[in-house]
Amino acid sequence: MYIQDISKHSICSCARDVIDLENPQEEFKAKRLLDSLIQELQNKAEHQVGEDGFLLKIKLGHYASQLKSTYDRCPLELVRCIKHILYTEQRLVREASNSSSPVGGMMDSMSQKYQQINQVFEELRLLTQDTENDLRKLQHNQEYFIIQYQESLRIQAQLTSLATLPPADRQLREPTLLSKRATVEAWLTREANTLQKYRLDLAEKHQKSLQLLRKQQTIILDDELIHWKRRQQLAGNGGPPEGGLDILQSWCEKLAETIWQNRQQIRRAEHLRQQLPIPGPIEELLNDLNSTITDIISALVTSTFIIEKQPPQVLKTQTKFVATVRLLVGGKLNVHMNPPQVKATIISEQQAKALLKNENTRNDSSGEILNNNCVMEYHQATGTLSANFRNMSLKRIKRSDRRGAESVTEEKFTILFESQFSVGGNELVFQVKTLSLPVVVIVHGSQDNNATATVLWDNAFAEPGRVPFIVPDKVLWPQLCEALNMKYKAEVQSNRGLSEENLVFLAQKAFSSSSINPDDYRGMTMTWSQFNRESLPGRNFTFWQWFDGVMELTKKHLKPHWNDGAILGFVNKQQAQDMLMSKPNGTFLLRFSDSEIGGITIAWVAENPNKPGERMVWNLMPYTAKDFSIRSLADRISDLNHLLFLYPDRPKDEVFSKYYTPPLSKAVDGYVKPQIKQVVPEFTTTNPDPAANPTYMDHGASPVVSHPPNYGIYPPMSDSMLDADGDFDLDDTMDVARHVEELLRRPMESQWSGQQS
User: Fold this and answer.
1) Closest to 119 measured CA to CA, from 197, 219, 188
2) Beta partners for 9?
3) Strand, helix or coil for residue 707
4) Contacts with 163 (C-beta within 8 Å, 6 or more apart), sequence order
5) Taking the mean position of all CA atoms in its chain, how far away is CA 282?
6) Angstrom distances, CA of residue 157 to CA of 23, 139, 147, 180, 468
7) Beta pairing, strands 320-327 & 384-397
8) Cβ atoms of residues 294 and 287 within 8 Å
9) What are the pLDDT digits (tens) for 430-461?
10) DSSP 278
11) Is-contact 59 108, C-beta < 8 A?
12) What is the pTM of this model?
């Protein structure tokens, strides 16, 4: 208990310095953790008093010595072990705390399934113990039978030797020997039938065990492991983590142990048959049993060679990437005694299909991966056997001929991991292979957007057991909504996902519809072409490209405002106008641009300067990530004094003030730092006091410069930057923006010669 509490304290204190187990350079941190843990144990030992304390002091000192001797050369293993323990405890706590919630109901269902699996393992244990007892009994009876058989041979030899005796002696001894021989032969006949029955009964019990083993293995491999792989695939789209493999590994190890015990029993039964052949069907039965048990263990070994950490599904050439392959039964079958090597190769979709059909692919590959060989390592603390590829890099890729309108970012590859090893002293040799999730290879960052679309569609809609890498060409709109919402929440790292109103807006955009009824879209389907091959009507980008642009902008610059609910986002221009016209002047909202990828605009209601008494909705030219890299959204909203209330009626400072950049410090050594601010010419508040109102250089939606009053040499521009629809024309003002930024980059003295203080 002491060592457990101390280790928890130490690992938690080290949590701030997150240790990357895959990075050998982190060993220094792990060593520091080990030393800290040993020191705490020694300190605890020193403070123990009394008789009980004396014993505990000895134990704690022993623990400290044991930790040092075990982990001093491999401190990362200690971190791996403690993290494993903490993860298991956290999972158990979560399961217990969720028992009353809907999720808890699901956990109860899982617990019930786990209980059933464990009950079957107990039944298999009892069956295996029963067949072990029967086998020993059979062996004992057979040994006694052989002794009696040898006795019958001795009697027969004695009878044969009687021929050399005088007739009188032969007549005296022969009846006794004949009677004895008849008795032994009768017993042998009965016992031979009994042995045959024992053998057949044992074979039938083994058949029952193997049937139950195969059924249990099917549940674990075809249900639980496949479900884990599906969760792993959805995690690639931002779904919840697939969870650890500890429970699955424990089940697979129990399977391996039980299968191996039954296999050894069947081999011993075969040895007994060969030792004492008795005519009958047992030979064929044992051959069938041996074939069946070999098939079962082969299926177990090949199915539990899995990819624990997938390579990136959008894979850029000449870029380092990692992957981890694990053999769930490696420790139990002692594969680590002769550590196997794993090789990684990139292959095409067609090569993957041929591989699964067992067609000869002539060791073809579709590219060259550097550092693609790795030896499997056994981690004693966790009992895992895995190969960690830490420095792979795709040097080159060989593309196949594309079909129709397919682009390079729609072409799918996969990483093939393969190895060979033996178990049971070379009794069985296995060649194992496993394929990664589909990867799309790119050579430039500009291809990332479309490659991600291919991966998203594949991860979301792939069917289990499919032919590589077939996916439906069209899916129901609600299915796509689920995938988009999962991806959005993960990318933005927010619990605020896409609302039903947001999804209706997306449906309107996807299907060029004006309906606001969600039910109208539930039965509609969206094709891959509509998703990311055909441009939206009147635009030069696809539905996915627009959506991905929104995600990227929100993730990088707008996340806190999205989480606060300050961004409505998925609202079109007409909807914004309808919403704002019923609100007081100065009310504004934030919506994603319809016309620009990765843009967000401010819409607000105000007076029409050309028609006194009439109000209208204005739309600012969309901001992009480039704009926010210069000045944040909150600061831009702060700059615009005519924006008063965030829709529907929240004062803007109440929402955004916590994100405002603090004012610049005062002049240092007579120099004043220039300041970038944003203005809208038609809505700039005039102030008669020039000292309180710095002059601005405006240029529409782009940031502008506020100079100190002594240097106000640029008067406000009088020309309107708003078009007839209330939008800013950014193209006409970009040269001014560039000029301002150039001014800011120049040394102060070159800009304001003669103005130094």
Assistant:
1) 219
2) none
3) coil
4) 170
5) 49
6) 77, 27, 15, 13, 72
7) antiparallel
8) no
9) 999 999 999 999 999 889 999 999 999 999 99
10) -
11) no
12) 0.73
How many angstroms separate the CA atoms of 228 and 225, rounded? Answer: 5
Q: Is 594 exposed, middle or buried (0-12, 13-18, 19+ CB in 10 A)?
A: middle
Q: How far apart, in whole angstroms, are the C-alpha atoms of residue 465 and residue 702? A: 52
pLDDT digits (tens, 9 = 90+) for 55-106: 787 878 888 888 888 787 778 777 777 776 776 677 667 656 655 445 455 5
CA 462 to chain centre: 16
What one-letter code names the amino acid at 124?
L
Q: Which tokens is 40 given?
A: 């705490």
Q: Could you tell me which of 410, 416, 413, 458 has the C-alpha nearest to residue 434?
A: 416
Amino acid in the structure at residue 449: N
Contact 682/698 with Cβ under 8 angstroms? no
Task: Give the closest residue to 214 by CA, choosing from 253, 246, 255.
Answer: 255
Give the pair of three-digit tokens for residue 149. Answer: 């058989």
**Residue where the block lists tokens 């350079």:** 25
320-327 and 305-309 strand pairing: antiparallel
Q: Give the pLDDT score at 710.
A: 33
What residues have CB less than 8 Å from 252, skipping those under 6 apart? 220, 300, 304, 328, 329, 332
In the structure encoding, which two tokens stand for residue 523, read together? 């039965």
β-bridge partners, 600: 592, 623
pLDDT of res. 203: 95
pLDDT band at 669 (very low <50, low <70, confident <90, very high): confident
- In single-letter form, the type of residue at position 342 comes to V
Q: For residue 555, which of 541, 571, 567 has the smallest C-alpha distance?
A: 567
Letter for the amino acid at 142? Answer: Q
Q: Which DSSP state fits 669?
A: T
Question: Which single residue is written with the structure tokens 């177990």?
Answer: 300
Q: Are 589 and 571 in contact (CB under 8 A)?
A: yes
Instruction: Give the percent of the chain with pLDDT over 70.
Output: 82
CA–CA distance, 180 with 78 (Å, rounded to integer): 72
Confidence (pLDDT) at 563 = 92
Which DSSP symbol is given to 717?
A: P
Number of residues in the chain: 757
Of 323, 434, 335, 342, whose CA–CA distance to 378 is shortest? 335
Amino acid at residue number 134: D
Closest CA to 188 of 224, 222, 155: 155
Distance linking the first and last C-alpha atoms of the chain: 70
386, 325 contact by CB (below 8 A)? yes
Phi first, then psi, for residue 438 (nearest 5°) are: -55, 140
Q: In this structure, are residues 415 and 331 in contact, taking their beta carbons and an 8 Å threshold?
A: no
Query: Coil, helix or strand for 590?
Result: strand
Give the residue ranges of DSSP H helices in 219-280. 226-235, 246-275
Half-sphere exposure for 505 (CA within 13 Å, toward CB): 20
The radius of gyration of the chain from alpha carbons, rounded to an integer in Å, stands at: 39
Q: How far apart are CA 44 and CA 170, in angstroms?
A: 91
Give the Cα-Cα-Cα angle 690, 692, 695 (nearest 5 degrees): 55
| 129: enclosing H helix or E strand | helix 102-161
Cα distance between residue 53 and residue 64, in whole Å: 16
- The answer to whether 471 and 224 are in contact (CB under 8 A) is no
Q: What is the pLDDT of residues 509-540, one digit of tens each?
A: 999 998 999 999 999 999 999 999 999 998 99
Assigned token pair, 753: 């010669």
Residue 716 · residue 694 · CB < 8 Å: no
Distance between CA 419 and CA 697 in Å, rounded? 67
Q: Closest by alpha carbon to 640, among 691, 694, 604?
A: 604
Mean pLDDT of the chain: 82
Give all strands (DSSP E) within 524-586, no chain letters: 525-527
